[in-house]
Amino acid sequence: MTAAQLTAQELTDRAGLVPFGPKPRRTSAGRIGIYAFLIVASLFFLIPVYIMIVTSLKGMPEIRLGHLFNFPVEPTFQPWADAWLHACTGRDCNGLSPGFYNSVKITVPSVAISIICASINGYALTFWPYKGANLLFGLLVFGAFVPYQVVIYPLIIGLSSVGLFATLPGIIIVHTIFGMPILTLLFRNFYAALPVELFKAARVDGAGFWRIFFSIMLPMSVPITVVAVILQVTGIWNDFLFGIVFAGRSNWPMTVQLNNIVNTTTGVREYNVNMAATILTAAVPLIIYFVSGRWFVRGIAAGAVKG
Amino acid sequence: MQRSWRHRFHLPAVIGTIPMILVAVGVFVIGIGFSLLWSFTSSKLFPSYDFVGLAQYRRLWADNRWLVSVNNIWFFGLMSIACNMVFGYLLAVFMDQRIRQEDLFRSIFLYPFAMSLIVTGLVWQWVLDPNLGLQAAMRNLGWSSFSFAPLVDANTAIYALVVAGIWQGSGVTMAILLAGLRGVDEEIWKAARVDGIPTWRTHVSIVAPMMKGAFATAFVLQCVGVVRVYDLVIAMTGGGPGIATSMPAVYVIQLITVRQNVGQGMAAATMMLVPVLVVLAFSGLVLWRRKRRQEAAT
User: Fold this and answer.
1) A233 & A283 share domain
2) Does B171 sit within 8 Å of A45, measured CB to CB?
3) What is the spatial distance between Cα B5 and Cα A296, in angstroms, rounded to a whole number?
4) A17 contacts B31? CB cut-off 8 A
5) Residue A87 placed within a domain
6) Same structural domain for residues A194 and A231?
7) Do B213 and A128 touch (CB under 8 A)?
8) Which residues of B touch A126 (CB under 8 A)?
9) Would you state the pLDDT for residue B143?
10) Are the beta carbons of B94 and A38 separated by less than 8 Å?
11) Least packed by Cβ within 10 Å: which of A60, A207, B257, B278?
12) Which residues of A fall within a CB distance of 8 Å from B8?
């Protein structure tokens, strides 16, 4: 469990260290080489998205000319509108928008429920460990490493036996289940770092399990909750496997709709519409990434610390 | 760690953690138990309890598609983890040279990780599309013999997956290793310089071994990513051309949905669990020995 010895906090703190010492004034060959390497690497990361953006703004005749890297001669936003409203999967031509609303309907309750469960778990494990609690926690951490494929089929059978397979509550339950190991670990580590005296004082004053949780722990959990929200929103929004298996056709999230639109085998491939659809699907997590900045890195690091 | 309230039974704590009890026991114990159970049966679309011993495992290991999948995941895993580590470390070292615009570079290297693997797969499918992507662009620029279409060739499609994996994941490796590099004491660099050790040698022999924690973190993250390679394969190649890029994760889902062969699917899923159990047992042993040594030392 402690294979990774850096905590999330340390990672971001160190990543955030400002370079110190005097700025190098000479532009030696070595410095040029450093920047050359970094810029070439940046191109590797940027070019695919550059291609997507310019292609999504071109009309199909212009795309067929094959000038992949050129700016659009006659920029058009029609592909974007088509992707949102009219793109087809099989016979349905409603575009991506139903997928977007489905993703919102799946993501919001899943994030809320999984974080509520995980914070109570972490709190109980830290301050109220009952007999067997640590064994349960061990099982949960083990679950973080289990390949999804091992438990997917039993879950399908279990959920369909209570009539929740291929429904919105079903997919929310699935996301809550698979978010629980890592989130519980996150909250447990956070509460374990709080001073025990805080809890003891509240106990002496006669506060019980829920009172201490709501009045003391919850207000202090804001930073870790922000990390958890970022982790869960991007994770659930980007999910494909659970969406396609558990959500059911009418609740398919945006990633599933996108894949269906793009990898549909019938008809002419409208590359501009496909690329616009892809950018729209990536937009939500990308906005979160650019707005949250350092918090996002901390979330990733927290995700890694489960090792 | 003697706390007076420890191990006393508190009903609210148990009630509050009912979801955890259900998930830990219901999903990760009973669920896996059922998967294991069904792998010994002749279940087709629905589970049955007609036990057939190890027949499903024998059929699994006689299935060419499964053998290809197993080969692929090892190849993809080793290639992508090795490339990610090397490229990520290089990026981290270059980022650590007190460069300007560090935040800008960091954002550029990391943003693919924020996006869905489906998006990554589609992006690279287009970049490598022979009629639309790099090959067409190069031919248009006048290099008419330029040939680069890894996705349509069964021998090279998996390399394309590795490239997409690097594009998506090496930024994170960079961020984690950079944090590790920044944690190495500045004095060590000075001491090595005084001793006249070349920079690359300091990196390989002194600094890298000191960053064990960061490397372990990055490695674990990579392994989890390799296991989740399902989305990337579906979006980029669909397991093709033919079965050339099939992976165990794809294979299992196909068996329980399209091919309606749950018994064999569960046998395959159980085989996926085996390496995880081996690694967990090994790391548990290492931790236990280290703990015992520490206790002996004090």
Assistant:
1) yes
2) yes
3) 37
4) no
5) no
6) yes
7) no
8) none
9) 79
10) yes
11) B278
12) 130
- How confident is the model at residue A79, as a pLDDT? 85
User: Which tokens go with B87?
Assistant: 């490229």
| Closest chain A residue to B13, measured at CA | A124
Task: Please answer yes or no on whether A48 and B124 come within 8 Å at the CB atom.
Answer: yes
For A296, the token pair is 């996002």
> For position A296, what pLDDT does the model report?
76
Assess whether A108 and A62 both reside in one domain: no
B-chain CB neighbours of A157 within 8 Å are: 34, 47
Burial of B142 (0-12, 13-18, 19+ CB in 10 A): exposed
Spatial CA neighbour of A101 closest among A173, A168, A169: A168
Give chain A positions within 8 Å (CB) of B99: 19, 34-35, 38
Type of residue numbered B67: L
Q: Hey, are the CB atoms on A150 and B269 less than 8 Å from each other?
A: yes
Report yes or no: B235 at the A interface, CB cutoff 8 Å. yes
Residue contacts between A and B (CB atoms, under 8 Å): 315
Secondary structure class of B71 (helix, strand, coil): helix
**Same domain for A160 and A241?**
yes
Structural domain includes residue A179: yes
Contact A234 B234 (CB under 8 A): no
User: Residue A250 has which token pair?
Assistant: 């009418």
Among A94-103, A291-300, B72-81, B146-155, the range with the most confident prediction by mean pLDDT is B72-81
CA distances from A113 to A152, A204, A283, B126 (A): 20, 31, 24, 37
B contact test, residue of A17, A38, A198 with most B CBs within 10 A: A38
Residue whose structure tokens are 């495992």: B57
Interface contact flag, B114 A124, Cβ < 8 Å: no
Q: Identify all chain B residues contacting A301, using CB atoms and an 8 Å cutoff.
A: 175-176, 179, 217
| Least CB–CB distance from A45: residue in B19, B109, B265 | B109
The pTM (predicted TM-score) of the whole model is 0.86
CB contact under 8 A, B94 and A154: no
State both tokens at B51.
Answer: 């036990």
B148: Cβ–Cβ under 8 A, 6 or more apart, which residues?
B128, B134, B135, B138
Phi, psi of B41 (to 5 degrees): -115, 175
ipTM for the complex shown: 0.86
Number of domains in chain A: 2
Containing A282, the helix (H) or strand (E) segment is helix A271-292
Paired strand residues for B41: B51
* The CATH number of the domain covering residues in B66-258: 1.10.3720.10
pLDDT tens digits for range B98-133: 888 888 898 899 899 888 899 999 999 888 888 777
Q: Write out the two tokens for A131.
A: 């007999």
Tokens linked to B42: 């002749």
A45 lies in which domain range?
A: 26-76
Distance CA A108, CA A175 (A): 11
Measured over the CA atoms of residue A47, residue B170, residue A142 and residue A305, the dihedral's sign is: negative
Flag whether residue B61 sits within 8 Å of chain A, measured between CB atoms: no
